[in-house]
Amino acid sequence: MRNALLSITLFILTMICVYFLNSSVLSLCDNIEMQAEDIELKITSGQMEEAYNGSLQLLNCINEKNILTSLYLSHQEFDNLLNESVRLSTYLVHNDETEAHTSLHLVKHNTEHIKKLQMSSLENIF
Description:
The protein is mainly α. It has 6 helices and no strands.
C-alpha cells in the first residue's frame, strides 16, 4: 500500500512539473514571437537602432530563461534559437537589412517549431 501511494504521489508531482515547464516554454515562445514582430516592423520602417535595441531585449529574454528551458527542451532546439538571435543582433549592428530579415524569420521558425513540439498530440507521443 505504501509503495502504491508513493508511486501515485511521484506521478502527480511529475505531471505538475511537466505542466509548469510546458506552460513556461509556451509563454517564452509567445513572448519571442511578439518581440520578433516588433523588430520586423522596425526593420521595415528603417529604424535600425530601435530594431537593434529590440534584438538585445530578445537576446536577454532568451538568456534569462536559459536554465529553465534547457532542462526541459532539447539543447539543439534552444541553441538554434539562441544562435539566430545573436546573429540577428550582429546583422542589425552592421545595418544588413536582408540578413537581418532572414535571421528574424529563422528565429520565428525555430519558435514555431518549439511550440509545435510542446503541443500535446499523437504525433508527439509516438
